[in-house]
Amino acid sequence: MTQIFINGKEINVPDNTSVLDAINISGTPIAQLCKDADMKAIGACRTCLVEIDGIRGYPASCSTPASEGMKVSTKGDQLDFIRKGVLELTAGMVDSNKEDLRELSRTIEANGADSGTWNSRIREKIDDSNPVFNIEMESCILCGRCAQACQSGHQFIGAIDVLGSSKQARIGTFMDRPLLESICTTCGQCLSVCPTGAISTKTKVSEVSKTITTTCPYCGVGCGIKAQVSSDDTIVEMLDDPENDSSLGMLCVKGRFGYTFVHHEDRLTEPLIRRNGKLEPATWDQALDLITEKLTGYEGDSFATLCSAKATNEDGYIQQKFSRLVMQSNHIDHCTRLCHSPSVEAMLTSLGSGATSNSYVDYEEAGCLVIIGSDANSNHPVAASRMRRAVVERGAKLIVINPRRIDMCDYADIWLRPRPGTDVALLNGMANVILKQDLSNDTFIKNRTEGYEDWADIVSKYTPEYVESITGVAAQDIVAAAHMYAVPPFSGSCLIWGMGITQHTMGTANAHGLLNLAFSTGQLGKPGSGISPLRGQNNVQGCGDAGCLPNAFPGYQTINADSVEKFSNAWGGHQLPDRSGLVVTDMVREIDNGRIKAMYITGENPLLSEPDLNHAEESFKKLELLVVQDIFLHETAQIADVVLPACS
To answer: Can you point out the beta strands (E) in 379-465?
Structure first.
């Protein structure tokens, strides 16, 4: 810890803390316009000037490191005069008639500055090409926050920067093209950090009465969001959450702007019951009474249920418990079956757990990242930003394995392009190099693995030259990738994969190949290493953990005599089914065979996700009872006997 004095007040701060951060920790107010809490200092606004004993002039506190015994003053006649002058010049850069200049307005008022002494009309340019937000230069003070957030502070995209100089300085894109024609992903990070409202949404935000901190409902990254809610309980804006460990204050376009579905006019608001072939509104009592009456007699293998990976752990847990305890059926599944079941199967077999082994912190601490079968920039944008941060800021190596070019290739040290369907051969080829060139972690192999000799014998024939003939990847590139992964420049290596290798006839084998690479090099169970399958829906992991699987109770406890007895005792001593149930694809077959007669579906739309949609529709229409619970009347809900509205 470092001891520092702020206006005579003694405080202790962590080492390597800036003077500005120390001032903020002490609770002392000070002007600060260009420094965002989550970004490096650039010293552009010059409003956080301080006086430090023994240092000449008035340094910017944001870019000055705190040192032991330092005595800092944030106030003084000369210092206040300089700060006031800087703020007046800053204020003069914008249109004083704007209704809300946000942080700038508050800072000017707090420091007693006038409206401004200089006004440039050359920067009146407005870029309104983006469908969600505008950039209005008449409100811009050129603090540089937006450019930094886009380039290196958060997202590492680089769509905007400060162009020109002096009175012609402005925020713009490469070649000064409209934002919509740039590489902008509409993540809104620039909007989030703008202190004046120069970057603002096209829709005026209503007055906010409360803030609710929650998790983004889209992909599996788990970004933190802060819903801004009006007095009539309408979400009017979604803000990022800097305290969330997954996203660190970042969001993508979906997380920041994709919330209008919550209040959409097509939302289901009341139960529907099919009467005379037509779905008609009903009360909750009518719907629940009908479901209770109709389900009686369908206990056992006649009943099946589909849970939702978009629902909470609690929802998934109670749904699988209802199926097993009340309906006596293990025919339980969810969308993981259609995306990441190969990963789960391989990880359960090899590790005993189907969960990701590392966190996003490990991405940033890794010395090497391998991303295979995933276009993370499109499907998991915030996770991709954390990968880019590792490469750009920390110098991590990046290996991309993908037959097609993805955006992450721009940051890759090695890009391997195997022929489709040859992933196992490629991974075995890398393993061959690791074993032949003594890059393996023998201690880890000896203490923590089994079956090594059999596996080593298999990969021994996958020489780089042989693998090149199969995959089309040059032998020297296979060797280079194996070295880079097995012996990273620092820390460990992370394996990251997506559905490009799991939604595949060899999906489980692909996942096993990746796991074997981690085992052979010991890249598991230490900082900056691990295995990381990127999940599609926001709670794929939790839904599996909660037991929404046909062959496992909560916690991936395989269905056998011991686990049946354990859960029977926990659930009141009632009898439970003792055989594994059917997966979703087999459920359709059993509907056709007349064995499954009733289904309860939550948050899934099999008439859109099944491989043969026409056949799926014919099959589900054969059910004697179909109950669907969801937020919209989608294709499957339209053929249901009872539709229940769900929470979002």
So the answer is: 397-401, 414-416
Confidence of residue 398 (pLDDT cuts 50, 70, 90): very high
Number of H helices, E strands in the chain: 24, 26
Residue 256 has pLDDT above 60, yes or no: yes
53/385 Cα distance (integer angstroms): 40
Residue among 208, 210, 186, 211 at smallest CA distance from 199: 186
CATH value of 2-91 in 3.40.50.12780, 3.40.50.720, 3.20.20.30, 3.10.20.740: 3.10.20.740
* Angle at the Cα of 39 from the Cα atoms of 8 and 32, rounded to 5 degrees: 45
- Which CATH number describes the domain made up of 210-263? 2.20.25.90
Residue 590's nearest CA partner among 558, 549, 622, 631 is 622
What does the mean pLDDT of the chain come to? 91
Q: Phi, psi (5° rounding) for residue 126?
A: -125, 125
Supply 556's token pair. Answer: 């991936």
CATH of region 272-338+541-645, choose from 3.40.640.10, 3.40.50.740, 3.40.50.300, 3.90.45.10: 3.40.50.740
CATH 3.30.70.20 intervals, the chain: 120-201
Q: What is the pLDDT of residues 469-500, one digit of tens each?
A: 999 999 999 999 999 999 999 999 999 999 99
Residue 99 predicted with pLDDT over 50? no
Rounded to an integer, what distance in angstroms lies between the CA atom of residue 130 and that of residue 133?
A: 6
557-595 tens-digit pLDDT = 999 999 999 999 999 989 999 999 999 989 999 999 999
Residue 218 is predicted with a pLDDT of: 94
**CATH number assigned to the domain covering 341-534:** 3.40.228.10
Q: Would the pLDDT of 111 be above 90? A: no
Count CB atoms within 10 A of the CB of residue 132: 13
The four Cα atoms 123, 128, 129, 130 give a dihedral, to 10 degrees, of 120
Q: Confirm or reject CATH 3.30.70.1230 for domain 120-201, answering yes or no.
A: no
Q: Where are the beta strands (DSSP E) in 441-487?
A: none
Q: Which helix (H) or strand (E) holds 278?
A: strand 278-281
